[in-house]
Design goal:
By secondary structure, the protein is mainly beta. A hairpin with a 5-residue loop joins strand 1 and strand 2. It has a domain of about 150 residues: Sandwich (Immunoglobulin-like), CATH 2.60.40. The radius of gyration is 21 Å and the shape is globular. The longest helix has 9 residues. The N and C termini lie far apart (about 70 Å). The structure holds copper (II) ion. Copper (II) ion binds next to loops.
């Protein structure tokens, strides 16, 4: 058996590569329903709609840190023109046929659907298929048996492009449900009734090494040492909101619920070190990891490796404002670890 390996000096992102047409691109809901209903039973139950989204790369995002420092970031602009960090939520139901029209800026990017298993054309792993210049419509079906919290991100020079902000949450709701319906909802159909949540939040622990934000698109791809093995974060955020030095809870991502309501927090670890969640006096359950529901809740204290996506519900039974704190990342150079905090408040 033989294989070819590309030496580093030829791995640079430099060429304009034509995108292929999306294999079997479905043109309408009617066409999808006809195809879906003609599937043999072993290819899945007959549910799911055609859902379309747009994600357009932008590279001129601008975040201001508490000390006034401005940080350049990238992201995916959605079909409504929103440019957020993380990029906008993409939410579907199991069985849906998902089409995401992606357009890159001048340089190559992709969207990889982490935890979803599309065919390789639509998987968004550039070096096993192609990188997008111009436009490409990703098409995949949300697996009827895989429900939960995922994320999507660019997979070109991945370490850098994810840090630059090219990522967002992806939620697959249970089959046969409306992904746009508000809670109360079950996280997955087999979940016990008391896991039904009334309030939902999505938190992405994220940290910024400012040096990385000055690098260019292809830094490190051409055999040079861009220092992408050294991550020295100076700012710690939840979503796009930075922690202030006084440790005050980040109000922008605070969760508000009424007494007796159940809260579900979906986390996507967008940083490069394990994250520790400290829920204070609360006693949350962990019910899912990487889009794979647990049949029973598990105690995963301290075990949140990179890329793990976890849903954590808890019941709001107290009145007060306990602070939930996510702390990390600890850098290789023994800087003190950072922390970012927010709160959940309960009203009567
Ligand atoms: Cu990219």
């Amino acid at each position: 058996m033989a294989f070819l390996q590309t030496p580093p000096q030829f791995q640079c992102v430099a060429a304009e590569i034509d995108n292929p047409a999306t294999p079997g691109l479905v043109s309408s809901q009617e066409e999808w329903l006809a195809l879906r209903n003609a599937l043999a039973p072993e290819h899945g139950p007959q549910y799911g709609d055609l859902r379309r989204f747009v994600r357009k790369v932008f590279v001129n995002g601008d975040l201001t840190m508490p000390d006034g420092r401005r940080i350049r970031h990238w992201g995916f602009e959605d079909e409504h023109g929103a440019r957020t960090l993380p990029s906008s939520l993409l939410r579907v139901s199991a069985g849906d046929l998902v089409q995401v029209e992606m357009s890159s800026s001048k340089r190559q990017h992709t969207i990889h659907w982490h935890g979803i298993e599309p065919d390789s054309f639509n998987d968004g792993v550039g070096h096993t298929s192609f990188e997008v210049t111009g436009n490409y419509t990703y098409q995949w079906r949300a697996h009827p048996g895989t429900v939960g919290t995922f994320f999507y991100h660019c997979h070109v020079n991945t370490t850098l492009h994810v840090q630059m902000g090219l990522f967002g949450p992806l939620i697959v709701d249970p089959p046969g449900t409306d992904p746009n319906a508000p809670p109360p909802k079950k996280p997955f159909l087999e979940a016990p009734d008391d896991w039904t949540y009334d309030v939902e939040a999505i938190w992405a622990p994220y940290a910024i090494d400012p040096r990385w934000h000055e690098l260019n698109h292809a830094a490190g791809l051409c055999g040079e040492d861009a220092g992408l093995n050294v991550f020295e974060p100076e700012y710690f955020l939840i979503n796009g909101s930075p922690q202030t030095p006084d440790g005050a809870p980040i109000e922008e991502v605070a969760v508000h619920a009424k007494v007796g309501q159940t809260i579900l927090i979906r986390t996507i670890n967008a940083s490069y070190f394990p994250i520790t969640y400290d829920f204070g006096s609360l006693d949350p359950l962990t019910i899912e990891s990487d889009g794979r529901p647990f049949r029973t809740a598990m105690d995963l204290s301290g075990l949140f490796p990179k890329g793990e996506l976890t849903a954590i519900p808890w019941s709001a039974t107290d009145i007060g404002s306990p602070t939930e704190r996510s702390s990390s990342p600890r850098s290789r150079t023994s800087r003190p670890s950072g922390a970012s905090a927010s709160t959940s408040t309960r009203s009567g």
